Amino acid sequence: MPSPSVLPPFRLPATGNVVVSDGDLRGRPLVLYFYPKDNTSGCTLEGQEFARLHPRFARAGVAVYGVSRDSARSHERFAERHGFPFPLLSDEDETLCRAFDVIRPKTMYGKPVRGVERSTFVFDAAGKLIHEWRKVKAEGHAAEVLGFVERTWPPR
Is 43 a catalytic residue? Predict the structure, then answer.
């Protein structure tokens, strides 16, 4: 299944005890990064890198949102523990994960499981998909996304 060419309709709980919809995310460029699980080493590293680079994303006028299947409560603890300055969306029913086709078969401890494939999508202010990365490695990925963002929307 290909990625949607525009930000699909959704309404999900987010950190800060709010509900975020696709309409809320239009009007400025957007980075939507999908990660497997709160408080795991790779996901923590990736979140910390996006957090460290967040001021530069903001200078370019780009919003950053993380998405996983974890609960809003888990997201609150994860974001608070690591000081994430961007919202995390809770996609427990896999609405957004399925729309972006990021649920993949994986193996954990020798057993087959379904999990989120680490992926990132960049949208313009109108909600049009302009770039995507799939099967990414956590380390250094946020910097790669930032490089693309700053080439596309130079910092102000």
Answer: yes
Residue 7, exposed/middle/buried by CB under 10 A (0-12, 13-18, 19+)? buried
Give the integer Cα–Cα distance in Å for 105 and 117. Answer: 9
Q: Provide the number of structural domains found in the chain.
A: 1
- Establish if 76 belongs to a structural domain: yes
Q: Could you read off the pLDDT of 55-76 as tens digits, one per residue?
A: 999 999 999 999 999 999 999 9
Catalytic residue among 43, 60, 89, 102: 43
In a domain, 3, yes or no: no
User: Could you tell me the maximum CA-CA distance found in the chain, to the nearest angstrom?
Assistant: 49
Classify residue 128 by its DSSP letter. B
Give residue 135's domain range: 11-152
2 in a domain, yes or no? Answer: no
- Predicted confidence (pLDDT) per residue in 81-131, tens digit: 999 999 999 999 999 999 999 998 877 778 888 889 999 999 999 999 999
Report yes or no on 4 lying in a domain: no
